[in-house]
Amino acid sequence: MTIDRRHFLKLSLGGFLFPMVGCGRATPVTQEQMYVFGTTVDLAVAGVDRARADQAMRRVTARFLQMHQDWHAWKPGALVDLNRAIARGEAVKTDPSVIDLIRGGTAVSRASDGLFNPALGGLIGVWGFHGDEIPRGYLPAPERVESFLRRAPVMEDITIDGLEVTSANPLVQLDFGGYAKGVALDWALDALVQAGCDDAIVNLGGNLAAMGGRGDRPWRIGVRHPQGDGVIGAVETRGREAVVTSGSYERYREVGGVRYPHIIDPRTGYPARHVASVTVIDRNAGLADAAATALVVAGIKQWPAVARGMGVREVMVIDDEGNVQLSEAMMERVRFVGTRPRSITVPRGA
Ligand code: AMP
Ligand code: MG
Predict the structure, then answer these.
(1) Contact between residue 66 and residue 34 where contact means Cβ atoms under 8 Å apart
(2) Residue with the nearest Cα to atom 1 of ligand 1?
(3) 60, 79, 61: which is closest to 2 by C-alpha?
(4) Angle at 314 between CA 287 and CA 100, to 5 degrees
(5) φ, ψ for residue 323 (rounded to 5)?
(6) What are the pLDDT digits (tens) for 169-213?
(7) What would the mean pLDDT of 152-171 be, rounded to a whole number?
(8) DSSP assignment of 211-257
(9) Which backbone phi and psi does 312 adopt, to 5 degrees?
(10) What distance in Å separates the CA atoms of residue 40 and residue 316, rounded to the nearest whole number?
(11) What CA dihedral angle connects 287, 289, 290 and 295, to 10 degrees?
(12) Which residues pair with 221 in a beta bridge?
């Protein structure tokens, strides 16, 4: 773990988070950076003294490391133990935080009509995404994918009794990679409030949650351009909310000139293509995270209906040619910066 302290927000944090430039007193911001959840994590707290901010952030970073261990889909820990027991057809006691993830994950999976399906870890592994390195030039045999679909594991296969978990389907393998960061963000903001910090922003690898602001200025978040290095748009946060982005540019492999991203469509068993990124703003970071993943799967025609079903209103979808679609509510929130996108549309019903 590397922790790098700075007293003031840098002008840009990897293009994701930067303070408003404008009038108002400069408020000191205490900042910390670490590497966890396989990504860079930035924490910034404003409006409290350095000692309080440091203490609160230490608590958050320690808990993040624990979550990382307990919730990892393929490294030794509580979730991997649980997945092994499920594969053996055994009941097993697990960590209370995993129980919460299963309950929350089941609810958002249902709301997404199964497009968000964290029981599909086995299939994600078949596609070779359960490793730090993505194997090159490899595609799974179609029979392996089909055999998965035939016994399609879903969250409803799982039964919880206290801390004990069983699954009616031994193919269930939990992978909360599309949800856990959002849940961690919700937890982090709660913990910061409890520690007396009401103005903070947390960036988990491009997924952000913020509350309050920096003095009289809101936090300003840049949404990464899925096709370039820069930022496509900026959002100023209002009160407490999360801005979560899911993209097929994050992890993928290319075989024969075709890109196979890490988000799998549970209906076909194949990676969801054509959507480059989805950004969701919502008060609930866990929901925003699951929704962003589900809407990548839903695709450029179905996303408005799935967003409605999941109860998220502020959504921006960018296709692999750089066309932007957004909901009416999101149109009011995002300010496009840099080169204007090829097209910007609000589809009917969005
Ligand atoms: P995110 O960046 O939040 O979209 O999460 C992507 C991760 O979610 C992948 O790396 C997988 O671990 C997992 N995942 C992939 N496809 C799905 C899906 N259809 N439903 C739930 N989780 C998924
Ligand atoms: Mg997600």
Answers:
(1) no
(2) 178
(3) 61
(4) 5
(5) -80, 140
(6) 999 999 999 999 999 999 999 999 999 999 999 999 889 999 999
(7) 97
(8) ESEETTEEEEEEEEPTTSSSEEEEEE--SSEEEEEEETTSSEEEETT
(9) -105, 135
(10) 23
(11) 110
(12) 17, 235
288 token code pair: 């925003």
Q: Across the chain, what does the average pLDDT equal?
A: 90
User: Minimal CA–CA distance to 159: which of 88, 215, 102, 87?
Assistant: 102
pLDDT exceeds cutoff 80 at 136: no
Are 181 and 207 contacting, i.e. CB atoms less than 8 angstroms apart?
yes
Do the Cβ atoms of 42 and 51 come closer than 8 Å? no
Name all residues whose Cβ lies below 6 A of ligand 1: 116-118, 120, 124, 129, 175, 177-178, 246, 250-251, 262-264, 266, 289, 292-293, 297
80's tokens: 């991997």
Cα 119 to middle of ligand 2, angstroms: 14
- Ligand 2 centroid distance, CA of 289 (Å): 4
Residue appearing with tokens 């993040």: 64
Burial 265-283 (b: 16+ CB within 10 A, else e): bbeebbbbbebbbbbbbbe
Residue pair 303/116 in contact (Cβ under 8 Å)? The answer is no
Q: From 72, 108, 263, 287, give the residue whose CB has the most ligand 1 atoms within 8 Å, as the site to mutate.
A: 263
Neighbouring residues of 167: CB distance < 8 A, sequence distance ≥ 6: 86, 153, 157, 158, 159
Q: Best of 101, 124, 289 to mutate for ligand 1, by most ligand atoms within 8 A of CB?
A: 124
**H helix count then E strand count, the chain:** 8, 19
